[in-house]
Design brief:
Layout: H1 5-8, H2 21-32, E1 39-44, H3 50-62, H4 76-82, E2 89-93, H5 100-109, E3 120-125, H6 132-143, E4 149-155, H7 163-166, E5 170-174, H8 179-193, H9 199-209, H10 213-223, H11 232-239, H12 243-255, H13 259-271, H14 276-295, H15 299-302, H16 307-317, H17 322-341, H18 346-358, H19 366-381, H20 410-415, H21 426-433, E6 441-442, E7 445-446, E8 448-449, H22 453-463, H23 465-469, E9 475-478, E10 484-488, H24 491-496, H25 499-510, E11 519-523, H26 534-543
Parallel strand pairs: 1-4, 1-5, 2-3, 3-4, 10-11
Antiparallel strand pairs: 6-7, 8-9, 9-10
Helix pairs in contact: 3-4, 5-6, 8-9, 8-10, 9-10, 9-11, 12-13, 12-14, 13-18, 14-16, 14-17, 17-18, 17-19, 19-26, 22-25
Length: 544
C-alpha cells in the first residue's frame, strides 16, 4: 500500500527534526538527565513538527537505550510505539473528542501504572478544541499527575487555551521553518525518491509552503505525479499561479497604466482556468515585498529572494512612492475579500481594481488621496511648474479688450475736449480685487467643507450599502457653531436616510459626539458644489 511522502519521511529522532533546534535541545537535555516534565505544551503553525516531536518524546522517555536524548528506534518500546501497538501511549484528537466525558475517562485511567512501558503518555492534538467543561476536568490532573504519567498537548491556536492550562505546562513555541531549510530537505527527499527536482522549483515550493514542512513535502509529491520532472513551470501549473515573473508583468502594467496589458493578463489567467484568488494572493505578496524594500534598508533580511530577484524588485520599487504602495495594497486587500464573498465576479473585481490602481483619481479613499498628495509633493520638490486649471468656463473670464480710441481729427479736437480713456467701474474693480469666498454660505453663516466626509460614507458602506448610496452625491459642511450641514440632491434621499447611522459615522470622523440637533439636512443642487475644493484642483494640475 502506498504511503504518503510526508508520512514516510516523518522524523524518527530529534536529529531528523528540521528548524526546531531551540526545542529539541531542551527536550534532549531533560531526557538525558532523567528530568522530563509532567506536562508539555507544543504550539505553533501547521506542519512545523508539533505532533512529530510529541511522538519522538513519547519514545524517548520510554526508550531502553536512548542515544544523546533521542530514542534508539530499535528496542521493543520504540518499535511498539512506531507500529501503534503500545497501549501506554494514547494519541487523541481533541477536535473530535472534546467532551468532558472523554477527559473524565482519562482522569480515571491515570491512576493505573503502565502495562509495558515506563511512562503512560497522553498526546492531545488540537487541544484548543476541548470544551470549557473538559478543560476544568483536566486542570487538577494536569497539575499533579501520577509520577508515571506525562501529558503532551499540541495546538495551533494558543490564544484559545485558558491561562490555567498554559501555566501548568512547559511551553514550547514551534517556529515556521526557514525557506532555505525547507528547500534543502525536499531536495534531499527528492533525491532519495528518484525525483528530478530543479533548484528553482525547490525554492518555489519552499516559499509556497510558508514554513510548513508537511505542506512542502505534499506539494513535492503532487508535482512529481506521473514521474515527470519537477521544474518551475510544473510547480506554477500545479499551484495555478503565474509565478513571480507573471506578477511583475502586472505591476509594470500598472506603473505604465497599460490597460491593454492588464486585460490581456487577466484574460490569459481566466482562459487557463487559474484561480484568480491564488493569482491575487501572489500579487499581494509582490506588493508586500515592494513595501519592505521601500521602507527598510535591510530588505534582504526579511525577503526570501535571490540576489537577482532582489535587484529587480528594488528597481521596480523606485517607481513607487510609499503612499502609492499603501493605496494599492489597500485596494488589493479589499478586492481579495470581495472575491471570497462573490466567486462569480472574480474577473470583474480583478479588472476594476487594477484599473483603479492605474488611475488614482478613480479612487476616493484616504490612502489614494495620500498617494496623490505625495505625487504633488514630489512634483513641487522637483521644481516642476504647474498650473491650476479653471473649474469651469464660467469661473474664469477673459478681460474685455477696450477698442482703440479713434484718432481725433483737427475738427473734432476743436469741437470738443478730449474724452478720458474708458475705465472700469468701481464695482467691477472691487469685484476683481476681492478674494474668492472661502466657502458657500447658508442662512447667514459661513460654512467650510468637511474634510473626511468620504471616510464617513465608507464606514456606512461597510455597514449598509443602500444607506451609502443615498450619500453618493451629498456634500457636508461645518459652521462655526459645531453644526454639520448636509446637502442632498433630492428629498427621497432625505426621507430614506438613517440619521442615527449617519451621526455615528460623523462622530467617529470628527472625534466628537454629533447630536441630532447638530445635524442639519438641506436639499440643494449638486452642480453648485462640484469641484469646489482647492486640493482637488491642485492635485489635478500636478497630475496633468
Amino acid at each position: 500500500m502506498h504511503q504518503a511522502l510526508y508520512r514516510k519521511w516523518r522524523p524518527r529522532t530529534f536529529d531528523d527534526v528540521c528548524g526546531q533546534e531551540h526545542i529539541t535541545s531542551v527536550l534532549r537535555y531533560g531526557i538525558t538527565n532523567g528530568t522530563p516534565s509532567h506536562a508539555y505544551l507544543f504550539c505553533g503553525s501547521r506542519g512545523t513538527g508539533k505532533t512529530t516531536c510529541a511522538k519522538i518524546l513519547a519514545k524517548a522517555v520510554n526508550c531502553e537505550a536512548p542515544a544523546s536524548g533521542s530514542p534508539c528506534g530499535k528496542c521493543a518500546a520504540c518499535l511498539s510505539i512506531d507500529n501503534g501497538s503500545a497501549t501506554d501511549v494514547l494519541e487523541m484528537d481533541a477536535a473530535s473528542n472534546n467532551g468532558v466525558d472523554v477527559i473524565r475517562d482519562i482522569r480515571d485511567e491515570v491512576v493505573y501504572t503502565p502495562s509495558a512501558l515506563k511512562y503512560r503518555v497522553y498526546i492531545v492534538d488540537e487541544v484548543h478544541m476541548l470544551s470549557i467543561g473538559a478543560f476544568n476536568a483536566l486542570l487538577k490532573t494536569l497539575e499533579e499527575p501520577p509520577a508515571h504519567v506525562i501529558f503532551i498537548l499540541a495546538t495551533t491556536e494558543l490564544q484559545k487555551l485558558p491561562a490555567t492550562i498554559v501555566s501548568r505546562c512547559q511551553r514550547f513555541d514551534f517556529r515556521r521553518i526557514a525557506a532555505p531549510v525547507l528547500a534543502a530537505r525536499i531536495f534531499y527527499i527528492a533525491r532519495e525518491e528518484g525525483i528530478v527536482l530543479a533548484p528553482e522549483a525547490a525554492d518555489r515550493i519552499a516559499r509556497t509552503a510558508q514554513g510548513g514542512m508537511r505542506d512542502a513535502i505534499s506539494l513535492l509529491e503532487l508535482c512529481a505525479g506521473g514521474g515527470r520532472t519537477v521544474d518551475l513551470a510544473t510547480v506554477n501549473e500545479m499551484l495555478g499561479s503565474e509565478g513571480r515573473e507573471g506578477m511583475l508583468r502586472v505591476v509594470r502594467a500598472v506603473v505604465a497604466a497599460d490597460y491593454d496589458a492588464i486585460f490581456s493578463i487577466i484574460d490569459e489567467a481566466v482562459n487557463a482556468s487559474r484561480d484568480l484568488a491564488v493569482f491575487w494572493q501572489d500579487l499581494i505578496s509582490v506588493y508586500r515585498d515592494l513595501l519592505v524594500i521601500k521602507t527598510t534598508g535591510a530588505a534582504a533580511r526579511y525577503l526570501d529572494l535571490t540576489d537577482a530577484e532582489l535587484e529587480e524588485l528594488t528597481a521596480l520599487a523606485g517607481t513607487f512612492g510609499k503612499g502609492t504602495l499603501l493605496a494599492h495594497s489597500r485596494l488589493l486587500e479589499d478586492a481579495l475579500f470581495a472575491m471570497q464573498r462573490a466567486n462569480a465576479v472574480k474577473r470583474m473585481v480583478a479588472e476594476l481594481t487594477l484599473l483603479r490602481m492605474c488611475d488614482p483619481a478613480l479612487d476616493t479613499s484616504a490612502e489614494s488621496l495620500l498617494s496623490r498628495v505625495e505625487r504633488l509633493e514630489d512634483a513641487v520638490s522637483g521644481g516642476g511648474a504647474m498650473t491650476v486649471p479653471p473649474k469651469s468656463p464660467q469661473t474664469v473670464r477673459e478681460k474685455p479688450t477696450a477698442a482703440p480710441a479713434p484718432t481725433p481729427t483737427p475738427a473734432t479736437a476743436q469741437a470738443a475736449p478730449t474724452a478720458p480713456a474708458p475705465t472700469a467701474s468701481k464695482a467691477a474693480q472691487a469685484t476683481a480685487q476681492a478674494p474668492a469666498a472661502p466657502a458657500p454660505a447658508a442662512k447667514g453663516k459661513t460654512l467650510t467643507r468637511m474634510r473626511g466626509f468620504v471616510n464617513c460614507v465608507e464606514r456606512i458602506q461597510r455597514e449598509d450599502a443602500m444607506q451609502a448610496s443615498f450619500l453618493s452625491e451629498a456634500r457636508a459642511f461645518l459652521d462655526g457653531e459645531g453644526h454639520v450641514i448636509l446637502r442632498l440632491t433630492n428629498g427621497f434621499a432625505e426621507m430614506m436616510l438613517d440619521r442615527d447611522m449617519l451621526r455615528r459615522a460623523l462622530s467617529a470622523e470628527l472625534k466628537r459626539e454629533v447630536a441630532d440637533r447638530d445635524l442639519q439636512i438641506e436639499i440643494a443642487a449638486v452642480e453648485a458644489d462640484e469641484n469646489d475644493t482647492v486640493l482637488d484642483d491642485i492635485i489635478a494640475a500636478a497630475e496633468n
